[in-house]
Amino acid sequence: MTLKKFNYLLISILICIFEIGLSGTVRGKEIVEMKHKSKHTIFLIHGIGGNKKHFGKMDKALKSVLNGKNEDVEYSIVNVEYDTGNDNKTPYDFAKDINTIIQKTTASGLFQKQDKISLIMHSQGGLVGSIWLFQSMQSTPGYATPKIITHVDSFITLATPFWGAKTAQWGSEIKSLAKRLGTDLPLPFGQKELEQMSFGSDMIYDFRQAMINPEFKPIIDYLKKNIRFLNIVGVADVLNPLGIFISGSKKYEDDGAVPLSSARFDFLYLKSLKDQYEQGDRVLLKENKSIEMSPYIVVNALHRSPVPDLKNFASIVQVTKDCINNKYCGHPSFKYIVDHLQGKKVRQRDEKLGDFKTFLIDINVQLPKNLKFKKEDVKIEFFKLDGGSLKDSNIEISHALELNSEGKRFSDDEPHHLRAYYMGSIKRFLPHRENAILLKISMEGLRSRFIEVKLKESYSTFIEVNLINKTI
């Protein structure tokens, strides 16, 4: 072999080695990238009487927008359906149903340590998801375990009636009436799920207790620290002419199904349970506390819409096709959802939606267990803090024209608990002044109590007190 041929052969071999090395480096880089690409599964959970169609094009829109922005994370969307409409099932049963689907997704071998899950829930879906989250943290049989909860990133609710809804109450009453008349109405809502979403239900009471009971503080602290919560709620400006009948104010502070104060998870509360107290015992304003758990965004949208593509009739949940590949589409909720999932700080953009007046008062009165009584026997009265009439004050409770502005019921689980709710409004904003009222609760044969109650626009206030016998 000549020297010239030898040099040619040597150069060829070196070039091959270089190309192989370069190719190996590229492939190695691809392998490393594939190995580190994490999964983020987003579960869409519909509301009462719903199905996956209630989200419109949200699954396609989220997948296209999120995967187009982040090459390090692979986003996938799972529509979760459960047996809504079944008269024998409660939201607790539905939470077990969705657990089965979530467990399959997070099964060992399919899910890695760095992988995440998020939940986007509409209406009752937020209650179902909340039950799943809390019960899983306690390792309750039928649910997941705290290990699964470590993968939860975002928990987004859309118009969830955490503290009750008039529409659920109306639906429950209609179904009960139809049953008494022997008529089977073809409604897509189950009796028990309607009852549990009505004001003062045992499920709602349990939700309140989970937040304020010291026993559950370690769980709540973990959730607040490790999961990114977001409440998105709707007000339907197009329905403002009906505001006085639904919200007791000039504005329609409701999305057509859920009032603002109920869709906000955060709330004010006062709990005073005493074995002994004097007649006319007074609980002071300083005893009022608050729960701060989730950011709160208001959008101009209906709960659901027959024509979601029309701007003035947009739905809080039904994402339209123009949002596919475009997070800046005209949908009222979509950009907030995308920004939150991407870890961005979400702020209220439409400041015009911030001037609210309404509130909800939710009361639980514990009475002696051996006492027989009717709802009407427990008297609940409202006054100004100085004991004067509310008539000329800044606070209005149970407007005469507002439908179902108040109500009472017994607890199914605790028959000696009387539940009551009242809708109200703060007439005008007064700077540097807290809004508060004096609440009197009394019953013949029992020692009455006075409670100073703090109120706040678009919030609910939960009051739990007991009454004792005069002879004790």
UniProtKB/TrEMBL annotation:
<feature type="domain" description="DUF676">
    <location>
        <begin position="36"/>
        <end position="169"/>
    </location>
</feature>
<protein>
    <recommendedName>
        <fullName>DUF676 domain-containing protein</fullName>
    </recommendedName>
</protein>
<dbReference type="Pfam" id="PF05057">
    <property type="entry name" value="DUF676"/>
</dbReference>
<dbReference type="InterPro" id="IPR007751">
    <property type="entry name" value="DUF676_lipase-like"/>
</dbReference>
<dbReference type="InterPro" id="IPR029058">
    <property type="entry name" value="AB_hydrolase_fold"/>
</dbReference>
